[in-house]
Amino acid sequence: MIIKPKGTVDITGKEAKVWKYVEEVIDSVMEKYNYNYIRTPIFESSELFHRGIGDSTDIVTKETYDFKDRGDRNLTLRPEGTAGVVRSFVENKMYGNANLPIKVYYNGTMYRYERPQKGRLRELSQYGVECLGSSDPMMDAEVISLSFNINKMLGLDDVVVHINSLGDSDSRNSYREALKTYFKPYLDDLCDDCKERFNKNPLRIIDCKIDSNKSYFKDAPKILDFLNVESKEHFDKVCEYLDLLEVKYVVDPYIVRGLDYYNHTVFELKTESTNLALGGGGRYDKLVGNLDGPETPCVGYAGGIDRLVELLMNEKKFSNVRDDIDAFLMYVNEDEKKYAIYLANLLRMSGFVVETEYNNKSLKSQFKRADYFNSKYLIILNSNDLNDGLVTVKNNKTKEEEKIMIEYLIYYFDEHISDDNQDVDLESYCHSHDKRGDCNE
Ligand code: HAM
Questions:
Q1: Does domain 325-420 have CATH number 3.90.1530.10?
Q2: d(CA 203, CA 254)
Q3: Cα distances (angstroms) measured from residue 138 to each of 112, 273, 433
């Protein structure tokens, strides 16, 4: 038997339904915020990630899936979505668009050679947004509140945004020096990774999983004390807008992020009770320039879909996921079967979710199969009724049944089956959360 590679998953059954539901919510929210869907390649030239994410990051040094194709090109399976979007922005000269910022979103698989464990996969799925062409803190706040609202729409109230600022390059340079001065006496005590970070990227020492509990970490310098006036103003504005948008956030000086492209705002969405990272993002004003485009201020976010689905499954927050069908068509002989085939098609094309029997099993097992699918109605076909143009329709809950003329079947279902097809109802959500009555005035 061939088994799936380590760090990959098969999504099936109920979990697959929850997955589709999560994607529907994401699509729906993105549409309301006017983000356009973008698809970029799953593999890109390796150089993109080396230059884009950073040569000293864990992702690039330890986690990429690199390969040579048959034409001897160095390619990499994308470990994240931002670099590809920026490459596309530059390659397609989207920066020439007069209507900047460009706001795009994506949803797809990413590949990181990490040690597989709970919530950490080698093939992972992310949804993400990237806004290219605005330096306004309003843009940062929109991206943060959008990511917060997606989780809220999914019923996850336990989510808090951890936000920090890495400032501009001047602020970061003085902070880097302060960190080096502070950690120098402890250098021998730091883990091997941090010893290397000390020279290459001292900011990453701050969020080291191994060292961060050591006593001297709590007195380490905090970046917010090193922000220059412009950087501080930017950060304060983002926080002011987040207050306006009623986003639950905490200022967290330990958020530095594992990708090199960030400046100013950085943030992560975490569950309050378990500290699970549901997503992260920030501003990356230098990346377009680093990838040969014109300097373009950008901000974005990516959330992990695998973790979201796992959380929803664990917390049984999937009442919005449809788990029934409208009708099950039952038959015994060949004539009845032809009607089953015909009526299933007719009802499906009229918008109803319909199932029938495919293995010529007994009526008894068809009843069981209908229950397995939680069928609301049973349509029982029998030759005598069919000769009179009738079918028996049984409400599978109340067990009441009646004979219906075949030509009225669709009207019958139109009338009896409420429209519970689980469309994401963002409008009613917003109205119920609109505490300020004057919002639309
Ligand atoms: P990231 O923090 O590397 O950011 O990933 C974002 C989210 O993807 C994580 O918070 C987590 O939920 C999920 N994730 C990451 N690695 C794994 C894994 N091995 N298994 C399961 N889930 C995982 C980025 O990728 C940036 N591109 C975000 C961004 C967009 N910044 C600006 N724009």
A1: no
A2: 9
A3: 32, 29, 21
Per-residue confidence (pLDDT) for residue 441, from 0 to 100: 29
What digits encode the pLDDT tens for the residues 62-84?
A: 999 999 999 999 999 999 999 99
- Indicate whether residue 300 lines ligand 1 (CB < 6 A): yes
What whole-number distance in Å separates Cα of residue 104 and Cα of residue 93?
15
d(CA 409, CA 94): 52
Domain layout of the chain by residue ranges: 13-168+228-315, 325-420
**Pocket probe mutation, ligand 1, options 6, 60, 124, 306, max atoms within 8 Å of Cβ:** 124
Out of 3.30.930.10, 3.40.50.300, 3.20.20.140, 3.40.50.2000, which CATH number does the structure's domain 13-168+228-315 have? 3.30.930.10
Query: Whose alpha carbon is nearest atom 2 of ligand 1?
Result: 280
Separate counts of helices (H) and strands (E) for the chain: 15, 16
User: Which pLDDT belongs to residue 389?
Assistant: 97
Give the pTM.
0.91
**Is the model's pLDDT at 203 over the cut of 70?**
yes
**How many angstroms separate the Cα of 393 from the Cα of each of 32, 121, 251, 330, 384?**
40, 47, 60, 10, 15
First and final C-alpha spacing in the chain: 64
Is residue 112 lining ligand 1, measured as CB closer than 6 Å? yes
Decide: 279 in ligand 1 pocket, CB within 6 A. yes
Mean pLDDT of the chain: 93
Please name the helix (run of DSSP H) or strand (run of DSSP E) that holds residue 269, with its range, or none.
strand 263-271
CA 221 to ligand 1 centroid distance, Å: 26
Amino acid at 120: R
Mean pLDDT of 413-435: 56
Atom of ligand 1 nearest to the CA of 121: 20
| Whether the CB of 285 sits within 6 Å of ligand 1 | no
Cβ of residue 31 lying under 6 Å from some atom of ligand 1: no
Q: Which atom of ligand 1 is nearest to the CA of 128?
A: 30
User: Is there an atom of ligand 1 within 6 Å of 301 CB?
Assistant: yes
In angstroms, the CA 84 to CA 86 distance is 5
| Phi, psi dihedrals of residue 393, rounded to the nearest 5° | -115, 125
Q: Specify the residue with its C-alpha closest to ligand 1, atom 22.
A: 304
